[in-house]
C-alpha cells in the first residue's frame, strides 16, 4: 500500500454543555483522513481523537503526520487486509518522542492511528470490529454491546429542558442505563438531581454519577460515603485522575464500584493505577479511551495489562460514546460503551443504521468504523477527502 | 499594566546530539514574548519552554495565548512590581482544561508563564532571581549556584572529538562536576566511558550518569547494581520516568543517589513520586523543570511539596541548563543547576556576563532572566519583539 496524503480538520463540537470542571463550548476534535492506495484501490481511512478535550492540528502537522509521510512504505507494511500496520505507524509517529508527558500528543497520535484501523477494515470490506477481533484474537460481541446514555449535565433555568426530561428521552429511545454529572452543585442539590434521575430509570443500579475529577480528596471521600448507600452503578472520577492514593482510599471506603481511567493516556499511567490505586477485580470500572491514548494498539495493550493484573475485560467501558469506541468494544469484547445522544455532535452518538434496543447497541455492517453513515459526520468526511 | 501582544517563535536547536532514546536534531523550542505597557513604559517579557522536547506553536496559538489575550487586565493584576501576576495568568491560560494529561500543554503554558516572570522582573529593573526570592519569601543564593556540565553524549567515530576531550574542555572552563549519557552502548562500553570521564574529573563523586529512561525495569536494576560500587554522584532516569514502583526498587537497592523528575510535569505526578517512589530525604535528586511543567508557579509549588514530604530544597536541581533555570535556582535557593556548554544552542548555556568559577555560576545583574545578554539569543529576541 501507498499513503498519498494525510489530512487533518479541526471540528468544533456542537451542543454546548458544562460539567463540574469545564465548559465544552470551546472544545473541538481533530478529524484525520489517510488517503491511500491499496491493491490498486483508493481508500480513505478516517479517525478522530475522541471527544471532551481538544483538536490537535498543531501537533499533528508539526510532528506526527510529517514523520509518517517521511517513512518508507516497507516500514509500516504487514497490517490487516494488506493495509499498513497501525502499530508500526504508531511507532513511526512516536520516533524521537521522549518517555513521559502523556497529554495532548497521546490524542494526536490516537486520531492518526485510528484512521489506519478504519483504512485496514475498509481494505477488507468489513466492519472494524471484525478486523479488530481477528487481529487481536478476541471473541467479539456478535449480539451488540451494552450501552448507557451519558448526559445528565447541568441545565440553566430557561433552557426549556430539565434533567428528568433528558432522562425520559433516553428511556424512550431504548436506553436502560444512564450517567449524570455531579459536583457542579451542592451535595443536597446533587442528591435531589440523583433522586429525579433514579425515579425515571427505575433503579439506582442503572445510574452512574460522574464528578469529572472536581473534588479535593476530603470532598471526594465525603461525597462517596454519602452516595455509597444509594447502590448506584458506579461513582466516577471523584478526584484528580492521577491521584492513585485517593483512588485506593475510595475503593477501600465504599462498596459502590469506582470508575476512572479516561484521563490516563498511557500504559504506564494505567500500570500505576493497577499497582497503587486499590482497584478491585470484578468490581471497578476502567474507562481509558483509545482516541486519547495513542490509539487502539496501546489501548489493546491496556486491556492485556488489566487482565494480567487479575481484572476482567468486561470491567473496561471506554470513555467517549461514538462509533469508533463501539467497534472497539464490540471487537475486543469489552463491558460496554457510552453514548451521548444529544451532545458532542458531530462525533457523539451512533449512526441511524446502528440498532438500539433494550439497552444494547448493534454496529452496522458498513466497512471500517462506518463513520460515513453518521449524517452529521458525512459532509465533513466528504470535505476532508475531496 | 496592559498586554499589547503575545508572540511565539519556533526556534530549532543547534548542536545535534543523541542520547539513548532520542535524537535532538529534530527538537525545537518555543520562544515567547509578552509585549506590555506598565506604568507608561513598554516592556517585553521573554520566556521559553526549556529544552529537550518540542516547540508548542500549535497549542500556544490555538489555546493558551488567546485565553490570556481575552482576559480583562484586572483578572491578572497584582503581580510583582506592578506587573501581571504569573499565577493568575497561568490559571487563565488553563481555563477549560481538564485534569490529567500533563504533557505538551505543560510546556506551552510553561513558556508563557515564564515570560510573565521576566516581564515582572524587568518592571522592577532587577534580575529575576531577586523578584523570585522576594515573591516566594525564600533565601536566594547570593554567591552563585553550584553548576555541573551536562553532556557526555555519544560521539560517532570521525566526529573529531572524544568524550575525554569534551570533559577536559569542561574542566578547563571552570566546571568541577559533569553528567554523561549511558544506555546507548553495551554495559562494558558504558563502563569504559565512565572510567574515561572519572579520570578527567578526578573523582567518581563528581560524575552523574543519565540513561534517559531507556532501560526496562530488569535492565535498570542490573545496571544500577553494577554502577552502585563506583560511588557516582547520582544515577538518573534509569527506566520509565512514570514507573514509581521501579524508582522505589532502585532506591531500595543502591546507596547511590537516584535522580528523576524532568519528565514529571505536574504537582500530582510529583505527589505520586513522593508517595510511591521510595525517594530518600537528603539523598535523592529531583529534576523537575519549570519550563516543562506549567511554569514557576507550579514549580515553586513542587518545591513546597518536596519540603512538606520531608525532603530538602537542595535536593532539587532542575533539568535544563539555561538562564531561566539559573535564576530559579538562585531565587529559590535550590541545590544547583546544569549547563550544556556545547549543545542546545541558542538556549543552552549562560551569558558571557555570568561568571563561572570553581564549579559555581553567578547570574549577572541584567534585568529579568537576562536572556538579551546571550549572544545566540539576542538576535532572536530582537526579531520576536520587533
How would you portray this structure in words?
The structure is a homodimer of 386-residue chains. Chain A is of the alpha/beta class and 386 residues long. The first copy, chain A, has twelve helices and twelve strands. Chain A has helices at residues 57-70, 86-93, 104-123, 128-136, 163-173, 187-201, 217-227, 244-253, 267-276, 296-308, 323-332, 378-385, and strands at residues 2-12, 28-38, 41-48, 145-150, 178-181, 207-210, 234-236, 258-260, 285-286, 337-339, 355-357, 360-362. In chain A, the strands form two sheets. In chain A, strands 4, 5, 6, 7, 8, 9, 10, 11 and 12 form a nine-stranded mixed beta sheet that branches. The mean pLDDT of chain A is 95. Chains A and B meet through helix 1, helix 3 and helix 9 of A and helix 1, helix 3 and helix 9 of B.
Write the layout of secondary structure elements.
2 copies of one chain form a homodimer.
Chain A: E1 2-12, E2 28-38, E3 41-48, H1 57-70, H2 86-93, H3 104-123, H4 128-136, E4 145-150, H5 163-173, E5 178-181, H6 187-201, E6 207-210, H7 217-227, E7 234-236, H8 244-253, E8 258-260, H9 267-276, E9 285-286, H10 296-308, H11 323-332, E10 337-339, E11 355-357, E12 360-362, H12 378-385
Parallel strand pairs in A: 4-5, 4-10, 5-6, 6-7, 7-8, 8-9
Antiparallel strand pairs in A: 1-2, 2-3, 4-12, 11-12
Helix pairs in contact in A: 1-3, 2-3, 3-4, 4-11, 5-6, 7-8, 9-10
Amino acid at each position: 500500500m501507498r499513503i498519498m496524503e494525510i489530512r487533518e480538520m479541526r471540528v468544533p463540537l456542537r451542543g454546548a454543555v458544562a460539567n463540574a470542571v469545564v465548559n465544552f463550548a470551546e472544545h473541538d476534535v481533530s478529524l484525520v483522513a489517510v488517503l491511500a492506495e491499496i491493491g490498486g484501490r483508493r481508500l480513505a481511512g478516517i479517525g478522530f481523537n475522541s471527544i471532551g478535550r481538544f483538536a490537535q492540528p498543531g501537533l499533528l502537522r508539526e510532528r506526527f503526520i510529517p514523520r509518517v509521510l517521511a517513512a518508507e512504505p516497507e516500514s509500516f507494511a504487514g497490517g490487516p487486509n494488506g493495509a499498513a500496520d497501525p502499530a508500526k505507524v504508531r511507532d513511526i509517529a512516536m520516533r524521537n518522542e521522549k518517555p513521559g508527558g502523556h497529554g495532548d500528543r497521546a490524542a494526536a497520535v490516537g486520531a492518526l492511528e485510528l484512521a489506519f484501523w478504519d483504512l485496514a477494515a475498509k481494505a477488507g470490506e468489513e466492519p472494524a470490529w471484525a478486523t479488530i477481533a481477528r487481529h487481536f484474537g478476541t471473541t467479539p460481541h456478535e449480539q451488540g454491546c451494552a450501552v448507557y446514555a451519558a448526559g445528565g449535565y447541568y441545565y440553566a433555568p430557561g433552557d426549556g429542558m430539565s434533567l428528568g426530561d433528558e432522562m425520559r428521552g433516553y428511556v424512550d429511545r431504548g436506553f436502560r442505563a444512564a450517567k449524570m454529572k455531579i459536583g457542579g452543585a451542592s451535595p443536597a442539590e446533587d442528591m435531589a438531581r440523583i433522586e429525579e434521575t433514579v425515579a425515571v430509570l427505575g433503579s439506582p443500579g442503572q445510574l452512574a454519577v460522574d464528578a469529572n475529577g472536581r473534588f479535593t480528596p476530603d470532598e471526594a471521600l465525603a461525597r462517596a460515603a454519602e452516595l455509597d448507600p444509594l447502590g448506584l452503578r458506579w461513582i466516577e472520577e471523584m478526584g484528580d485522575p492521577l491521584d492513585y492514593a485517593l483512588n485506593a482510599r475510595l475503593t477501600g471506603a465504599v462498596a459502590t464500584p469506582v470508575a476512572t481511567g479516561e484521563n490516563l493516556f498511557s500504559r504506564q499511567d494505567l500500570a500505576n493505577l493497577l499497582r497503587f490505586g486499590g482497584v478491585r477485580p470484578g468490581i471497578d470500572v476502567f474507562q481509558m479511551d483509545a482516541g486519547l491514548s495513542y490509539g487502539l494498539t496501546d489501548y489493546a495493550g491496556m486491556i492485556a495489562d488489566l487482565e494480567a493484573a487479575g481484572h476482567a475485560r468486561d470491567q473496561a467501558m471506554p470513555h467517549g460514546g461514538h462509533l469508533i469506541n463501539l467497534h472497539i468494544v464490540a471487537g475486543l469484547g469489552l463491558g460496554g460503551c457510552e453514548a451521548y445522544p444529544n451532545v458532542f455532535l458531530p462525533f457523539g452518538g451512533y449512526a441511524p443504521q446502528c440498532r438500539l434496543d433494550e439497552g444494547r447497541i448493534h454496529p452496522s455492517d458498513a466497512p471500517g468504523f462506518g463513520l460515513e453513515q453518521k449524517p452529521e459526520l458525512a459532509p465533513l468526511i466528504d470535505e476532508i477527502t475531496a
